[in-house]
Design a protein that fits this description.
alpha+beta, four-stranded mixed beta sheet
């Protein structure tokens, strides 16, 4: 089973300081669109050696706003703390895989 979205918000400074490849996954545990996308995200990330951080988003959640998140799920792809890609409401494993290639 995949991990739930974290209710605790990491600090933006901590995210910016993370070395290597990171995927931030913004959404909520009750979101039907997030739940529908979960198998696609899990399949695309299977076997990857990167951090996948699922962060609960919503009103008053500053981290999502700092990355321009407006719809769920939104995947933000980071390399050494810098955004290199973003997918809003992923529709296929291939779309996620294409963004993952930008992390290489």
């Amino acid at each position: 089973m995949t991990q739930p979205y974290l209710t605790e918000q990491p600090l933006r400074a901590d995210i910016d300081a993370m070395p290597g490849a990171v995927v931030l996954d913004f959404g909520t545990n009750w979101c039907s669109i997030c739940n529908a996308a979960r198998p696609l995200v899990d399949a695309a990330l299977a076997g990857q050696t990167l951090r996948h951080i699922k962060v609960e988003d919503g009103a008053g959640r500053a981290l999502g706003r700092s990355f321009g998140v407006k719809l769920w799920p939104t995947l933000v792809f980071l390399r050494d703390g810098k955004e290199v890609g973003k997918i809003v409401r992923p529709q296929s494993v291939e779309a996620i895989t294409q963004e993952l290639a930008r992390l290489a």
